[in-house]
Amino acid sequence: MKIVIVGCGRVGASCAELWDAAGHEVIVLDIVTRAFERLPSTFGGVAIRGDGTDEDVLRRAGAEGADVLVALTEGDNRNVMSAQLAVEALGVPRVIAKINDPVRAAAYSELGIATLCRTGLMADAINGHLGFPPSGLPGVLAATGHHDGGAHPAAAHGAHEGAGDGATEQEAARRAAVEA
């Protein structure tokens, strides 16, 4: 299976190592060359310095023929932009975007992008360890809808890049979820 990973942080590097060891063709993109130091010396895939939100960069990296693209940067906006390009412009059949904000994770899944929400997953892991019931926050959400292109809701409301913890970004995500 051909897998493109956008973001070579701890999660991206760990997935790259696992999937490479399992025999998959793995391509990792990151805008910071130093991020590739997280990859083991045994990594047999390809590491490319480039912006995963740039369609041309994704095409040159081979995303157009990929079976899977996972967007795992620290920025919700970068992840959803990369995922949206993979789905709409490159025809990648299986795409997942890491979204830290639970409200945005739900909204983007309704727009046709599968999401992984670290906030919900961690809250549920902690609750499980403590013997508490699940949080009800999204963890992994399948793509349930379809986005017809154009500006994406958070961008249309001036949301800024980040991990989803800024007040302006949260308010924009709430508006996007209401409008979705």
What would your notes on this structure say?
Helix content is 39%, strand content 16%. By secondary structure, the protein is an alpha/beta fold. A seven-stranded mixed sheet has the order 3-2-1-4-5-6-7, with helices on both faces. Helix 4 packs parallel to helix 7. The longest helix has 13 residues, at 76-88. The relative contact order is 0.13.
Structural topology:
Layout: E1 2-6, H1 10-21, E2 25-30, E3 46-49, H2 55-61, E4 68-71, H3 76-88, E5 94-98, H4 102-110, E6 114-116, H5 118-130, E7 140-141, H6 153-156, H7 167-179
Parallel strand pairs: 1-2, 1-4, 2-3, 4-5, 5-6
Antiparallel strand pairs: 6-7
Helix pairs in contact: 4-7
Helix content: 25-40%
Number of domains: 1
Morphology: globular
The CATH homologous superfamily is named: NAD(P)-binding Rossmann-like Domain
Judged by helices, strands and strand pairing, the structural class is alpha/beta
Distance between the termini: 33 Å
**Would you count the extended β strands for me?**
7
Which regions have little confidence, pLDDT < 50, spanning 5+ residues? Answer: 152-180
